[in-house]
From TrEMBL:
It holds the Pfam family DnaJ. Gene3D superfamilies: DnaJ domain. Residues 1-62 form the J domain. This is J domain-containing protein. InterPro entries: DjlA_DnaK_co-chaperone, DnaJ_domain, J_dom_sf. It comes from the Eukaryota. PANTHER family: CO-CHAPERONE PROTEIN DJLA.
């Protein structure tokens, strides 16, 4: 939740919006951060969205 900047009670729409915001910010081709930092952060954001957007994985995480 912290990685995407959402509350634990966030809806699917809120998760999607937060993911898109963070993905655009940290995408290695668009970020102004060093490539290694942006790439690692983008991977963390993608993984967080993957876990939280799947109902079973989210339940296991919670």
């Amino acid at each position: 939740y912290d990685i995407l900047g959402v509350r634990p009670s966030a809806t699917e729409a809120e998760l999607r919006k937060a993911y898109r915001r963070e993905a655009l910010l940290w995408h290695p081709d668009k970020s102004t951060a060093p490539a290694e930092v942006a790439s690692e952060r983008f991977k963390r954001v993608s993984h967080a969205f993957h876990v939280l957007s799947d109902a079973q994985l989210r339940a296991a995480y919670d």
